[in-house]
Amino acid sequence: MNERDITNAVKAVLDQMKEKGSHPENGHVCRCSQHKMTLKAANALIEKVKEKAAKMGVSIVIAVSDQAGRPVAVQSMDGAYIASFDIAVNKTFTSASLKMSTEALSHLSQPGQPLYGIQFTNEGKIVIFGGGEPLEADGKIIGALGVSGGTAEEDTAIAAYGKEIFEEVLACL
Question: Which PANTHER family match (predicted)?
């Protein structure tokens, strides 16, 4: 094989990957550009999460951050609590910086557990109740989702739903 043949082969493979999208069943999981959180991905996820919350009858704030916990997009549904804005953003910070859901952290931060008192670190930005989830693409954390406005159980369920459908959302972009 010469250099031209190799170049043509690589182009053919890349063209196939573009056609197939980000579908594991087609042998391609990532579109390379999805190794970071984009505004387009964040907004697409927020739309799906808002639909879920509306079906549940819950007005929430949804935040999506990058892998460092910096907000990429935040939306407040009509009727959401004012306090839910900061809480949702802080849930993304918590999940991104600790690489775990805030629901999992809630168990680890109870009295007698190894992370007891962690909520008093990082200028109080650590949230120790459910509603925050890390978001992955190809097994790599690229951001986080924060949901606030329902009960702890509702926030946890909605955030888990968002995490569950995130790769599907990426595949549709």
Answer: PROTEIN GLCG, SLR1406 PROTEIN
Give per-residue pLDDT as tens, 88-99: 999 999 999 999
Phi and psi, residue 80, nearest 5°: -70, 150
Q: How far is CA 67 from the centre of its chain?
A: 9
Could you identify the residue written with the tokens 């970071």?
36
Q: Residue 83 half-sphere exposure, CB side, CA atoms within 13 Å?
A: 2
- Residue 35 sits at φ, ψ, to 5 deg, of -85, 10
Q: Where are the alpha helices (DSSP H) in the chain?
A: 3-20, 39-56, 83-98, 102-108, 152-171
Query: In this structure, what DSSP letter does residue 130 have?
Result: S
pLDDT in tens, 45-70: 999 999 999 999 999 999 999 999 99
CA distances from 16 to 1, 29, 51, 63, 111 (A): 21, 13, 33, 34, 53
Q: Which domains does the chain have, with CATH numbers?
A: 31-172 (3.30.450.150)
Tokens at 166, concatenated: 């995130």
CA distance 109 to 142: 24
Provide the β-strand partners of residue 137: 140
Token pair recorded at residue 79: 């009727």
Residue 137 DSSP SS3: strand
